[in-house]
Amino acid sequence: MGRLRQKGKAGAAKKLHCSLADFRRLCIGIFPREPKSWERANKGSSAPTTFYYTKDIAYLAHEPAFAKKLSRALGRGEWISAKSLEENKPVYRLDHIIKERYPTFIDALRDIDDALCMIFLFASLPSNPPIPPSLIENCSRLAAAWQLYIMRTQSLRKVSFSIKGVYYQAEVMDQTITWLVPYQFTQNIPADVDVRVMLTCLELYQTLLGFFYPPPLDAKRDENAAGQASEKSNKPVVPKVKVVEVEGRQVSGEDEFIVQPSKSEPEAASSLPTLQSLKSLPQSINTSLFAPYTFWLSRETSRPIFEFLIRLFGGRIGWPESSGGGSPFDESDKSITHVIIDRPVVDRSSETDEQRQRRLKRKDIQPQWDEDEDAEIEDAEPQTATAGALEATAALRAAELAAEAAGIDPSAFEKEIAKSQRKSKKKSSNDVDKAEADMNMMLMSNKQKKLYEKAKRSQNKRVLESTKLEEKKKSLQKQKRKQGQMIP
Questions:
Q1: Fewest CB within a 10 Å sphere: which of 32, 121, 315, 487?
Q2: Where does the pLDDT of residue 201 fall: very low under 50, low under 70, confident under 90, or very high at 90 and above?
């Protein structure tokens, strides 16, 4: 007697002689259909079932034929035939699905957020049996190509650091695109995550992002983990308008056309630009924020993030060989103006005079300074923070100088500082406790949240009852004291 099967478990997968995982991968371009009579199609059953056209399933039926021929050749020992079959293995393409789903380029840009997040996620994952190294390498190249496009077109608008990673927001062809890039930490894939479904979506996203030919990359630099520096061509994509100086003022190469009201048509004045319409126009973005500066990355900083941000805003950046190859200059370069460092100050008693002179000409900055400047997009030079310095110490020194200039007694100033520090410490401890409680609530499941809220309600109820009893006790004691005073 054969093995019993539940009704409706085989279906289209049985006709294709493939597993459910293979069927999910194959049916990307095959859409489910809604039958005219649900009961008749499902044979009277009310169980949820997905229906497909028979001709669509028959179109996919060529897939198991190759596996059947290959296994038959291997079983008979026909090695030449098996090798020929393996070399001529059929490969399916997803180009037609991209064209059907996204008729125009703008439609593809509107749906590219998820594709970018998935590509950057798999580019940071370690290789394992389900995720081969070739897949990770392809995702890394697509991610580098996208960042090169954003850098050359200078389309980045916002940057934000969070616990999940770095959020970027760019504007491409008037479409706002937001994607998330994980931090460069060792990632562990959870056991309860079905990677096969994600790989199916990733296969479509790789075709979507790689639909056009990517920029040419230098193979040697790419092997040395050069990342965005692997590109061969360094010519800017956006042409610069020639600017000449005439009688002390700068004039661009193109004349600006100013619309004037028509005398013969008074109605045409209503279509002229107004002050409100000019305010709503997109403002110019300072894309040369870091152009006068040359940065050097220390080995403990995240190179991909800062290379992307600094090069995008016109700055030059270098890094040590331990962070990857392809650096345009080394640490001894005299043009370096800033050093991005994120470690305590080391003992410099053994440095030479040349090293000391070189260090004094540079400014040590923390990584957060670069992100803050990208978020604000200001042209003014910021106030750099040296490594290991604290903002609270700088604020305290400034307040001390201001108090001395105002003629305040130093002892009174110190008392006020100690009092404010106690208040801020108490407030910060309360804020930390509240933040920890909120974080714990976010990590709880729905069942745990309900139990926690129930316990908190009962606790608040007990506190309220005890408060009422205390108030009642105090009122009774007060009445007794009054009665004792009234007795002669």
A1: 487
A2: confident
> Terminus-to-terminus CA distance in the chain, angstroms?
106
Q: 80-89, pLDDT tens digit by residue?
A: 888 887 787 7
**Nearest to 217, CA basis, from 230, 202, 236:** 230
| Backbone torsions φ then ψ of 434, nearest 5 degrees | -65, -40
**156-161 and 363-365 strand pairing:** unpaired
Among 273, 101, 127, CA closest to 186: 127
Residue 250's CB is within 10 A of a number of other CB atoms, namely 8
pTM: 0.53
Domain 294-345+353-389: give its CATH architecture: 3-Layer(aba) Sandwich (3.40)
Measured CA to CA, the distance from residue 145 to residue 232 in angstroms comes to: 12
d(CA 191, CA 130): 12
344: which residues sit within 8 A by CB, 6+ positions away? 387, 388
287 DSSP assignment: -
- Tell the burial category of 302 from Cβ atoms under 10 Å away from its Cβ (0-12, 13-18, 19+): middle
DSSP state of 323: G
- The number of residues making up the chain comes to 488
Tokens of 152: 């050359």
pLDDT at 217 over 90: no
Contacts of 13 (CB under 8 A, 6+ apart): 19, 20, 23
Please give the radius of gyration of the chain, using alpha carbons only, rounded to the nearest integer. Answer: 34
Residue type at 428? S
In sequence order, what E strands does 256-394 have?
Answer: 294-297, 316-318, 338-340, 363-365
Whether 299 contacts 320, CB under 8 Å: yes
* Mean pLDDT (whole number) for 442-448: 79
Rounded Cα distance, 219 and 228, in Å: 12
Taking a C-beta distance cutoff of 8 angstroms, is the pair 237, 153 a contact?
yes
The Cα 272–Cα 258 span in angstroms is 10
| pLDDT (tens digit per residue) in 99-142 | 888 888 898 898 899 999 999 999 999 888 889 999 999 999 89
